[in-house]
Design brief:
The chain is α+β, with helices and mostly antiparallel strands. It folds into 4 domains: 7-284, 7-stranded beta/alpha barrel, CATH 3.20.110.20; 287-326, no CATH class; 335-431; 490-724, Distorted Sandwich (Beta-galactosidase, Chain A, domain 5), CATH 2.70.98.10. The protein is 31% helix and 26% strand. The protein is globular and about 100 Å long.
Length: 725
């Protein structure tokens, strides 16, 4: 008699929320997915499930949902569930240092062990990002296996049938078991009737019994996405074809129970029962969609078309297996704002390491104890800032979600404030300080200048138009330059979009960017960044002529010698521009000087330039509070008797003063412009990015831009005074 064909079905569910996501969002996910999903698993005692929780979400559940936790503990006791580990705050391991990888994994492993009494053997890889050195550090923390995408195996020559087994890999002689996720099941559940999943499993089953199809799903996919709550849990609203409207989750579990040839098993149980198929070495990879999203926008458009053509063409389908997209780390290039967060994280942790080394100077045991506690708090703030969600963009909002970027900066500035506290304990004279650090902050082989004090962080990039790209107000752990440039995206070519709806920027939204504009440029053209640029200063290199500290004042002086085009001809007139930045305690002052060379026999050209052009300076800023509670005012306009324009509405007025207020954070940002020119035209408009997310196309607020326009002169000087309180 032939042995019955069987197949192992490990199921893994991934529960995740970004650090500092809103409570009401997590509560909504809990009601729609987490609670009914775990309730159903609890009822089917014979169905084995592997679970993964991000540490911060598990903390939230422990604090807010004791009944949920008790069910998990009961299922753990009856060996129904396995809980795997990973990075506590869901980092991408590839972009955080070794020490942090180990610390984040140990923190989550300890929490699982202490709360559920389970040994953690496996690791979840955020966004399934894999790099070939992973076996080393995962082995160092005692983990035995990881889950990776089937996409990782394709370029090694392994076909769909080959992904029905586990493999083993190594780095530096340290081994790690790899479990490939099954693509077919991932797309069938919960979107299609359960019998289609069963038919696929039947097709993949064999007599030997060591095959497995790893079904993995975000828990949110089983109840939060679209209509999945109704499909998965509401009687009569499941699939009618084959399931007669029965909710997908109980219907699927019943199918597994009724078909005894399907072996429900955890990943650890499978690993203990069956050896690896073979040794394998995987290339750097993520899931296929991620490898598409990370590509530069124009290349992404082409890649998507090529991928679809290959997949749909029966004659060329085999070629598709070897088609690979981009490399996850390229998101740090594609989105400079993502790179800025990452490099600030590296910068702050380096400061913390230096502070740890300074602890050697301390002799008092009691003081050492206090400082060690603060150091641990600072490390945790840094780990929170490593949460991956806002470092990239694909189907979800990612880097476009401004409140998640704000969370990263808040935790990093919190860490800096703790470092300041520690340094003042070690050396009381460090309670107040200011200094300038020339450093390749962006890691692009060029030098940026960081002005850091107990009140401000002001990061200056001379190589990008002599602009400021970060402005932190430390008393409130608040980065006022947490703006996002409106980058062009591949999906902007969608037929569903009107082209005039989508505004994109030519230059990164930094502070102090200079533009030479014609008198005729409108507020709408400025807002759309669709005007002719007459100067060559907007994103060019400025030379730092001086960076020094005088007492409690930090000063950076920059200059560039360039040219401005004649409005009527192609001839250009030389001009020298200097930008001086002064930072003193709670004051920031910027002095801009524009001096034209008077070239003999070209006076008419210079006169046309003076007559027809303006100098504009960008002052973008970001408020994180409730947008309905933003306020603004100016000393030059009286709107008491009229409806006051909203901060996020485009507006233009003549004046030299602007003040905005974020009521949620009790924070104000004030601009004063001092110039001999008394007819300064101030343009105000919101920075709104058009992004595609899981909820469709969305207009997402990214900040506010103030652009004063000042009439040119042969020798023009104006001052900006910026106050934050």
């Amino acid at each position: 008699m032939d042995k019955e064909k069987t197949i192992c079905l490990p199921i893994c569910l991934h529960f995740h929320q970004p650090v500092d996501n809103f409570d009401f969002v997590i509560e909504d996910c809990y009601k729609k997915s987490y609670e009914p999903l775990i309730d159903n698993i609890f009822k089917f005692e014979d169905i084995k499930i592997t679970l993964h929780f991000s540490g911060n979400l598990l903390e939230w559940l422990l604090k807010n949902k004791p009944d949920f936790i008790e069910k998990l503990k009961l299922m753990a006791k009856r060996s129904q569930i396995e809980i795997i580990g990973g990075g506590y705050y869901e980092p991408i391991f590839a972009i955080i240092p070794y020490r942090d990888k180990i610390a984040q994994m140990k923190k989550l492993t300890d929490l699982i062990r202490n709360e559920f009494g389970l040994e953690v053997k496996g690791a979840w890889l955020s966004e399934r990002v894999w790099e070939p050195d992973y076996p080393s550090f995962l082995n160092d923390v005692g983990l035995k296996y990881v889950i990776v995408d089937d996409n990782h195996f394709r370029s090694t020559g392994i076909t769909e049938e080959g992904t029905l087994y586990s493999y083993i890999t190594e780095n530096e002689g340290k081994t790690l078991r790899l479990f490939p996720i099954n693509e077919e099941l991932r797309y069938l559940t919960p979107w299609k009737p359960t019998y289609l999943s069963i038919e696929y499993l039947k097709k993949m089953a064999d007599n030997k019994g060591d095959r497995m199809t790893l079904l993995i799903s975000d828990a949110e996919k089983m109840g939060v996405w679209g209509t999945t709550h109704q499909i998965c849990y509401v009687e009569g609203q499941g699939h009618h074809d084959g399931d007669n409207g029965k909710p997908f989750i109980p219907a699927f579990f019943e199918q597994i129970r009724n078909n005894t040839w399907i072996k429900s098993i955890t990943l650890s149980e499978y690993m203990a029962k069956f050896p690896a198929k073979s040794l394998i070495y995987l290339p750097t990879a993520s899931y296929d969609k991620m490898e598409e999203w990370v590509l530069p926008t124009q290349i992404r458009k082409n890649f998507k078309r090529i991928r679809k053509d290959l997949k749909d063409d029966e004659e060329r389908k085999e070629t598709y297996q070897f088609l690979k997209g981009g490399f996850w780390r390229y998101f740090l290039v594609k989105y400079p704002e993502s790179n800025n967060m990452h490099k600030k994280m590296i910068h702050v942790r380096n400061k913390l390491i230096n502070t740890e080394e300074n602890l050697l100077k301390v002799e008092k045991e009691q003081l050492i104890s206090v400082i060690l506690k603060k150091i641990a708090e600072a490390w945790d703030e840094i780990y929170k800032a490593q949460c991956n969600d806002c470092y990239w963009h694909g189907l979800f909002g990612g880097v476009y979600l401004q409140f998640l970027r704000f969370s990263v900066y808040t935790h990093l500035i919190n860490a800096e404030r703790i470092i300041d506290d520690i340094n003042s304990l070690i050396s009381p004279r460090m309670k107040t300080y200011i200094y300038i650090t020339p450093i390749d902050f962006i890691k692009d082989s060029k030098t940026e200048y960081l002005i850091e004090s107990d009140v401000f962080n002001i990061y200056v990039n001379p190589n990008d138009g002599g602009t400021i790209f970060e402005l932190d107000y430390k008393p409130k752990s608040y980065n006022l330059l947490n703006t996002l440039t409106r980058w062009p995206e591949a999906y902007h070519d969608s037929k569903k979009l009107e082209k005039e709806e989508v505004l994109v920027d030519r230059f990164k939204r930094n502070l102090l960017r200079l533009r030479f504009l014609h008198n005729d440029v409108t507020l709408e053209q400025l807002q759309a960044d669709q005007y002719y640029e007459f100067g060559d200063f907007v994103d060019e290199n400025f030379k730092v002529t001086s960076s020094e500290k005088e007492g409690k004042i930090a000063i950076i002086e920059m200059e560039k010698i360039g040219s401005v085009k004649d409005p009527d001809t192609d001839e250009r007139t030389p001009v020298r521009i200097t930008k001086d930045i002064y930072v003193e305690e709670r004051e920031i002052e910027v002095i801009v000087r524009i001096n034209f060379d008077e070239v003999h026999e070209k006076e008419k050209i210079l006169n046309r330039i003076i007559k027809n052009l303006n100098i504009a300076i960008d002052i973008p800023f970001f408020f994180n509070g409730d947008t309905t509670k933003f306020q603004w005012e100016s000393k030059q306009i009286d709107l008491k008797n009229d409806k006051k324009p909203e901060l996020l509405e485009a507006f233009q007025f003549i004046g030299s003063h602007f003040k905005a207020y974020d009521e949620t954070y009790d924070l104000s940002f004030e601009i004063d412009i001092l110039s001999k020119e008394d007819s300064i035209k101030i343009n105000k408009f919101p920075i709104i990015a058009y992004a595609y997310t899981d909820e469709g196309y969305q207009e997402i607020y990214q900040g506010i831009n103030i652009t004063p326009l000042i009439k040119l002169d042969k020798n023009l000087e104006f001052h900006l005074r910026l106050k934050i309180s």
